[in-house]
Amino acid sequence: MIPIAPQDRVFILTGAGMSAESGLPTFRGTNGIWRTYRVEQVASPIAWARDPKLVWQFYSERRRRHHTVQPNPGHYALARLEEELGDRFFLCTQNVDRLHEMAGSRRVTHMHGKIFQSRCERDCERPPFDDDWMLENGAEIPLCACGGKIRPHICWFGETPFGMERIAAALEDCMVFLAVGTSGVVEPAASFVRYARARRGYVRTYYVGAEEPLNRAFFDEVLLGPSGELLPRLFALQAPRMNADERG
Ligand code: NAD
Ligand code: ZN
């Protein structure tokens, strides 16, 4: 159980394991995506420069796949927790899927972007936009008005994640840090628990996932199991203590 007191602020970091039970493959496990594609072929600026159609083929498959999946009980548990905690809840996901939103989460920081958003490769004045375009045989990659190619709005290896200022502020502020289904390998997310722990004694850190993460040493408690089964019965919200006036 993770006890949450009335003043506690909770930071949650989710990774690919969060969506595994919904049928979206993780990166590194068995059936991991990288068994079919190599990361440097599809998820880096170099890959984009070399073969943008191969990159779009990969992300088109992921868009297509997403149309067939639903949130799992873990996503719903976090949406419920957000409802209870309001502003005291911060959800940061490395996932580009929209399962958190489909489960009802409202304030999700997608540090690695969103599968259903695209943007101009030249980062011209056109902001990222919602997009479910998929590469079909023989099609050309759409162009922006400025002439640049449209690319997935995804943070590739070697690029800077989105929302880092907001994330840093929330890490500074939290009393409970929980990571779910993330192998603790990909930076900077893997270091978030360490930032939070810099104020040890104050922050309690938890991990929920199928196996121990690489950064296990920074967690006070590690709960092993599928997040879809563990999260729905994990949080114990403590009722606010009434002050003398309210007691009457
Ligand atoms: P990862 O693939 O490196 O690690 C996945 C972790 O999830 C592993 O530690 C594994 O033990 C755990 N896991 C597997 N099944 C689980 C389950 N049912 N319940 C709980 N945990 C389970 O993923 P990562 O750490 O998130 O980092 C890799 C990168 O993968 C991120 O940048 C992320 O953007 C990207 N990614 C996203 C998606 C998605 O959007 N759904 C899918 C794959 C990868
Ligand atoms: Zn442009």
Description:
With 248 residues, the protein is of the alpha/beta class. The chain has two domains: 1-24 and 71-112 and 163-248, TPP-binding domain (Rossmann fold), CATH 3.40.50; 25-68 and 113-154, SIR2/SIRT2 'Small Domain' (2-Layer Sandwich). The protein contains nine helices and eleven strands. The chain has helices spanning 39-42, 45-50, 52-66, 73-85, 99-102, 164-173, 192-197, 227-230, 244-247; strands at residues 2-4, 10-14, 89-93, 108-110, 113-120, 129-130, 150-154, 176-180, 204-209, 221-224, 235-237. It has a six-stranded parallel β-sheet with strand order 4-3-2-8-9-10, with helices on both faces. A three-stranded antiparallel β-sheet has the order 6-5-7, covered by helices on one side. It has a two-stranded parallel ribbon with strand order 1-11. Strand 3 (89-93), helix 5 and strand 4 form a beta-alpha-beta unit. The structure holds nicotinamide-adenine-dinucleotide (NAD) and zinc ion. The site of nicotinamide-adenine-dinucleotide has 28 residues, from loops.
Tell me the number of structural domains. 2
Spatial order of the strands in the main sheet?
Answer: 4-3-2-8-9-10
* Number of helical regions: 9
> Could you tell me the strand content as a percent range?
15-25%
Task: Give me the Rg, rounded.
Answer: 19 Å
Structural class: alpha/beta
Residues in helices, as a percent range: 25-40%
Q: Write down the overall geometry.
A: elongated
The average pLDDT score comes to 93
**What would you say the CATH architecture of the largest domain is?**
3-Layer(aba) Sandwich
Q: What ions, cofactors and ligands are bound? A: nicotinamide-adenine-dinucleotide, zinc ion
CATH topology of the largest domain: Rossmann fold
Note the gap between the termini: 33 Å
Could you tell me the number of beta strands? Answer: 11
